[in-house]
Amino acid sequence: METTSTTEPPSCACSGIRFCNRCINSDRVKYLFSGNVQLRNADDVIANQTSNDRTSSLSFALLGNSHKSVCIECGVVYNSSVLITSCADHKNKTDDKVDVMVKGLFVERDVISDQEEADLIHFFDNPSPFPDWKISQSGRRKQDFGPKRNFKKKKVKPADFPHMPKVFEPLFCKVSKEVSQCTASIPYSIAEVSVLEYTSENMSNFDPHIDDTWLWGDRIAGVNLLEDCVMTFVDSNGNVVDAFLPRRCLFLMSSDCRSIWMHGIRPENIKGRRVSITMRELSDEIKQDLAVAAPLLEAARSFV
């Protein structure tokens, strides 16, 4: 008698507060959203960023709908259940202006061309001799370019292949120039690149979080590829503010936006395939240790 074997789909990489389409109906995730789990609130997460008790993320289980939106053109935040994409969207919303500011958020449209976007995507899907996509948590895939690090032990060293892809060279020039101009002409030296792929099929998301402050500096830059997106910001007072990120834009998070607002991506705000390139500089603490910083920055300036 012929038998047909079935293969279970591979398990996802999610754990703790994270979820994707593979585990959304699991007992763990159902319990997470049941309201019976004691989760750290936004105030606690933000207050403990530099302590040994640091937790980087806030669970979506504690996050309600967004009822505020920041205009990326003028920086004003409005009470709005509809996403504001430009100043034209709030010309009749004067009474809806709120006394909240996502200080340090900057967005510039069309920082790269259609062809530059296509070249970057082609490289990410064919990255040899650099590592291919790896499965990450929350339905994402990732590629990392830059130093090897251990955040718990606070250890960092150059990657085994201490170079950056040649396709990054013109991007680094553009981003470094724009970021410097936005931040008092302080030079922006990119030390690390994190590339994340989000797909609606995988229910990809990123829980609201604050990037590590021991290794990475005040300015975090990113480029949004393939589709428009919405980034959700959360502060310790419970304000939840959406920001529109158009396709091929540069976005910069610094100052308050970097340190006292968490940022995340809701799964419902991914409509197809989105790829995000995040570029980080070294923290002042790391830069002061030249024996550590010099080889990291040298590797980031070596394009192959």
Automatic annotation (TrEMBL):
Residues 189-283 form the Fe2OG dioxygenase domain. GO terms for biological process: demethylation. It comes from the Eukaryota. This is Alkylated DNA repair protein alkB like protein 4. One of its GO terms (molecular function) is oxidoreductase activity. InterPro entries: AlkB-like, AlkB-like_sf, ALKBH4, Oxoglu/Fe-dep_dioxygenase_dom. Pfam families: 2OG-FeII_Oxy_2.
